[in-house]
Amino acid sequence: MSTLILITSSPTSVHAWHALGLAQALQLKNQSFRVFFYQDGVAAANALQWVPDDQRNLTAEWQKLAIRLPVCVSAALSRGITDAENAQRHNIQQHNLAQGFELVGLGELADAVQASERLIQF
């Protein structure tokens, strides 16, 4: 069964961590799944987000999974997160998209919803 994990919760939310836990469990069991970061969930893709030494870094944990990490470009840009290409296009001085994350359009979410047998939103 293919699963789409839709992450809309901020990285400071316990729900965002539950999304990661589900992804880790599905990967461990070799189950088919995809993820998509949308709304406040896009903050997980911010390379400039600081995390105290005594806490786990959600961004780094997603990167460890070595899977495709698509992020809604509109939601990211509206929250101050951009890659080099969009920074240049929109005359933004810096880019801060974390390594391994990829800015994509909402068409990707539509395709993922259509291709998945179940959708779980966190």
TrEMBL record:
Record SUPFAM superfamilies: DsrEFH-like (SSF75169)
Q: Which cell locations does it reside in?
A: Cytoplasm
Q: Which UniProt keywords apply?
A: Cytoplasm, Transferase
Q: Does the keyword Cytoplasm apply?
A: yes
Recorded GO CC terms = sulfurtransferase complex
Q: Which NCBIfam families match?
A: PRK00207.1, sulf_tusD_dsrE
Q: Its gene? A: tusD
Q: What is this protein called?
A: Sulfurtransferase complex subunit TusD
